[in-house]
Amino acid sequence: MNKIAQIFETLEYGPAPESAQPALDWLKAHDGIFGHFINGAWTKPGKTFSSDNPANGQSLAQVSEGTAEDVDKAVKAARAAFKSWSALSGYERAKYLYAIARLVQKHSRLFAVLESLDNGKPIRESRDIDIPLVARHFYHHAGWAQHRDREFPGQVPYGVCGQIIPWNFPLLMLAWKIAPALAAGNTVVLKPAEFTSLTALLFAEICEKAGLPKGVVNIVTGFGDTGQAIVAHPDIDKIAFTGSTEVGKAIRAATAGTGKGLSLELGGKSPYIVFEDADIDSAIEGLVDAIWFNQGQVCCAGSRLLIQESIEDRFIAKLKKRMASLRVGDPLDKAIDIGALVAPVQVERVRDLVKKGAAEGAQVYEPDFDIPGGGCFLKPTLITNVSPSHTVVTEEIFGPVLVAMSFRTPEEAVALANNTRYGLAATIWSENINLALDIAPKIKAGVVWINGTNNFDAAVGFGGYKESGFGREGGKEGMGVYMKPAWEKDLKPAAAAKAVPAKPVNPLDGGDSIDQTAKMYIGGKQARPDSGYSRPVHGPGGNLVGEVGDGNRKDIRNAVEAARAALGWGNASAHNRSQVLYFLAENLQYRRAEFAARIREQTGEKGEAEVDAAVERLFAFAGWADKYDGAVHNPPLRAIAAAMVEPIGVLAIVAPPTRPLLGSVALLAPALAMGNPVVLVPSDKAPLSVTDLYQVLETSDVPSGVVNIVTGDSAVLARTLAEHDGVDAMWYFGDAAGSTMVEKASTGNLKQTWTSRGLNYDLADTGRFEGDYFLRRATQVKNVWVPYGA
Ligand code: NAI
Ligand code: MG
Predict the structure, then answer these.
(1) CA–CA distance, 542 with 503 (Å, rounded to integer)
(2) Ligand 1 pocket, 267 CB below 6 A?
(3) Whether the Cβ atoms of residue 284 and residue 261 lie closer than 8 Å to each other
(4) CB 297 near ligand 1, within 6 Å
(5) Which atom of ligand 1 is nearest to the CA of 299?
(6) Which of 73, 125, 127, 300 is deepest in the core (most CB within 10 A)?
(7) How far is ligand 2, taken at its centre, from the CA of residue 195, in Å?
């Protein structure tokens, strides 16, 4: 039989290799050795390490290990460039971003080949996905550069951004970091991951070619300690990180108290839910993309298959058959599906986790074919016979390994999907659009794909819930994390709180003239403090004006539990939340005289104006409740992405020591308007205006558990709240030390924090605080992708 006839018979793929030569020539043109790209020029190579090709273990080039001095030089260059770069018109910056996009497109094949050589990903992916998305990102952000001032009035860039990226999408992650930073007017110091520095270095050359002013983009290569030097540098204004949750937490702790902006895009264990009415063949192809795209080294990989029990056997059988036809091999072969993992250490990590799974009783399936030896190749793997507590179900494996479980009902699917510390993405397959759209909002993840998977676009925000991080990349939300209000830089330190007479008090004294001790307010009921103790509240002259309960850990725990039970507040209609806030305003207005007198007792100031301001603030956020909402994006494929604004969850608030009523209401109102149940700690100096609110809350139809109030020593209570894993976000008004403590203690579950850092935020300022300042911090955006048409 001749060869062609044979091929027709078997339909076997022949080899279709892409040439490595252009990339190797480029490396050779640099003598195979690189310094850093700082201030528009290459530094002399320092101590170097090898960047390897994981498909064959061969060294591609030597790159320099960035020292703290290198980082410092890069930061100085970025600082020097910031002034003129940020002063350029939006149009000027747009032209640079556009030029970069054009040049990336022009050299896309070289980028794709170099990326596949250095990272091991199939050329099909780098050529058709990574690099086109990079160009798209710069094109898209050219537009944001030009329209920044129109779309973000009053916002200014941070300054110098330190950006640390991982190795799974080397150039794409660079684009996700650099494009919005430059569009907003920042300058950057970026560190690529140690396994994959080369396309970032090629990109530096593109910046030169585009004529980008020197110092605007600086690339420093190196390991984790180079990253650490960036995080620790005092003259960096914002850190943006993508990588492991572990390092993300370390960065959160390291930046605590520094005032640096921070966005984190971390790990995931994303569910891939297949309902019995799904188009099974499509769902199988989607799954191939979800878990075997980029060898499964994808933060949003659909690594947890949740399959409805009624179709489980049929689906798994089909899946195994499909797995057997996947082709593992040379990343530069255009007809392979799975390339090499990034490095031997990752192969070991994945193998260890699979072994652990087997040891815990899981069943491990691998198709019966050979894979190339001598490189970082692994077979596609399916793990079954697991329960939710298995290591392979809870841990991010970050390799070509799928873990499958079944469910019976949609409710069970949601419970399993959310049973993870992560919340990056989710996929839902069902031909029933009602079912899919019912499930999407119930899943705690930043991206939900319906009947599709791994869709990305520059116009659509991407980022996580929970321990998958905070902040978004892409779209308007992504631009938002590279800017801050111009007025923030003018804030002065708050005046130190007036010392309260620290006379020792006999606990038996005082109580007689006070008719009652205010209790806590937990789950809609007044509750006695667990400690059984109360605290005196003094007026401005040191006179005793009341007593409140002295709350402790236990009271906070009860309050958080009550708030978690009230998370349904986020599902109440925006109109309904708005009505409740208007009603609160009305009922507070009704008791104006009483609240004004209480303010006077505690502060000595006339209270009417503060009560009026609090009523106005409630009105303002009642008005926002049904207006601060999302968008529908139109990415360049037949899909819409609905950007839904969702509450963050349980929000803890420690109110400022000034303005006993407005200080709490100004924070409570935006939190409630957006659907977050709250645990509020009023000022410990003047808590009575808040404890007086109980009756107002009760008469205003605020559902029980939506507002919980714990009085006591705010520093002590703040720590408990910051450490509590049931708290999803925290706003803290207080001094610098307390703010640092809150940010540090928040790392456990990576709760989102906002702290006043001892600065004088004047909450009475309606221009600053009746708008989206706190609304943005009370919400997170979920993008739900829905394909349409055929
Ligand atoms: P990693 O988080 O250590 O590396 C990411 C980047 O952070 C690299 O540029 C690295 O040099 C830098 N880095 C490391 N330690 C640092 C520190 N203390 N301060 C500042 N920068 C630091 O991830 P690694 O070790 O390469 O991979 C381990 C696991 O992390 C993977 O198996 C995967 O589970 C997860 N991972 C998740 C990623 C994601 O996109 N979600 C990306 C990369 C890794
Ligand atoms: Mg490499």
Answers:
(1) 10
(2) yes
(3) no
(4) no
(5) 41
(6) 300
(7) 4
The tens digit of pLDDT for each residue in 697-710 reads: 999 999 999 999 99
Cβ of 683 less than 6 Å from ligand 1: no
Quick check: 688 and 661 in contact, CB under 8 A?
A: no
Please identify, by atom number, the ligand 1 atom nearest to the C-alpha of residue 397. Answer: 34
pTM above 0.85, yes or no: yes
Encoded amino acid at 424, one letter: L
**Stretch 474-483: mean pLDDT:** 96
Alpha carbon 207 to its chain centroid, in Å, reads 28
Lay out the sheet containing 37-38: strands in order across. 41-42, 37-38, 217-219, 187-191, 160-164, 238-242, 261-265, 469-470
> CA separation (Å) from 109 to 341, 515, 635?
21, 80, 24
pLDDT at 498: 61
Beta bridge partners of 753: 730
pLDDT tens digits, 398-407: 999 999 999 9
Quick: pLDDT tens for 402-430: 999 999 999 999 999 999 999 999 999 99
Residue 18 CB neighbour total at 10 angstroms: 22
Given the residues 125, 194, 265, 547, the one annotated as active site: 265
By most ligand atoms within 8 Å of CB, the mutation choice from 164, 176, 245, 247 for ligand 1 is: 247
DSSP 473: B
Atom of ligand 1 nearest to the CA of 298: 40
Cα 197 vs. chain centroid, distance in angstroms? 24
Provide the Cα torsion 596, 597, 601, 602; round to 10°. Answer: -20
* CA 354 – ligand 1 centroid, Å: 20
Assess whether 69 carries a catalytic annotation: no
Helix (H, G, I), strand (E, B) or coil at 776: helix
Q: H-helix or E-strand containing 783?
A: strand 779-787
d(CA 708, CA 521): 5
Q: Which of 144, 136, 186 is nearest to 163 (CA)?
A: 186
Token code pair at residue 561: 């539990």
